[in-house]
Amino acid sequence: MAATAAATTTKAVVYGTLSVVYVAFLVNLLIQILRKAMDIRMHAINDYGRIIHEFDPYFNFRATEYLWEHGWKEFCQWFDYKVWYPLGRPVGTTIYPGMQITAVVVNQYILPDWSLNDVCCFIPVWFGALATLCTALLTYECSIGIVHSHNKQDNNISNNI
C-alpha cells in the first residue's frame, strides 16, 4: 500500500514538473512568435521611417485625419472630392471606419504625445501581433481538444482489453 502511495506521489511530482516545463516552453514559444510577427511588420518602419506607404493606406490616413479634426458627425457626412475624380466619394457611408476610429481613440486617450501619423504607422504592428496571438490561442484550443479526444479513445480501448 505504501509503495502504491509513493508511486502515485512520484507520478504527481513528475507530472507537475512536466506541466511547468511544458507551460514555460509554450509561453517562450509564444513570445518568440509574437516578437517575429512584430519584427515583420516593423520592417518598413525600420527601413524607411514612420511614413505612410502606397495609396490605400494614405487614403485611410486622410480619413483618420478628417475624423480627428472634424468629429464623428462631420465624418459620416463627408463627401471627398479628391478621390474617385471627377465624381468624388461619400466617404462616411462607403468605408468601414474601424481603423480610423481605433487610430483616433489610441491617439486621443492612450498615446496623446504621438502624432496621428505615428499611430497609423504602428497600428499594423500592434494588430499583427494581436492577430498572431489570437491565432496561436485558437490553435492551442483546437489542438488540446484533439489531444483530449485521443486520450479518451486510448482509455476506452485499454479498458475494453
From TrEMBL:
Keywords: Glycosyltransferase, Magnesium, Manganese, Membrane, Metal-binding, Transferase, Transmembrane, Transmembrane helix. Its EC number is 2.4.99.18. InterPro entries: Oligo_trans_STT3, STT3_N. The keyword Membrane applies. It comes from the Eukaryota. It catalyses: a di-trans,poly-cis-dolichyl diphosphooligosaccharide + L-asparaginyl-[protein] = N(4)-(oligosaccharide-(1->4)-N-acetyl-beta-D-glucosaminyl-(1->4)-N-acetyl-beta-D-glucosaminyl)-L-asparaginyl-[protein] + a di-trans,poly-cis-dolichyl diphosphate + H(+). Its cofactor is Mg(2+); Mn(2+). Its main location: membrane. The chain crosses the membrane at residues 12-34. It is a multi-pass membrane protein. GO terms for molecular function: dolichyl-diphosphooligosaccharide-protein glycotransferase activity; metal ion binding. One of its GO terms (cellular component) is endomembrane system. It is found in: Endomembrane system. Pathway: Protein modification; protein glycosylation. Residues 35-141 form the Oligosaccharyl transferase STT3 N-terminal domain. PANTHER family: DOLICHYL-DIPHOSPHOOLIGOSACCHARIDE--PROTEIN GLYCOSYLTRANSFERASE SUBUNIT, DOLICHYL-DIPHOSPHOOLIGOSACCHARIDE--PROTEIN GLYCOSYLTRANSFERASE SUBUNIT STT3B. Belongs to the STT3 family. This is dolichyl-diphosphooligosaccharide--protein glycotransferase. It comes from Attheya septentrionalis.
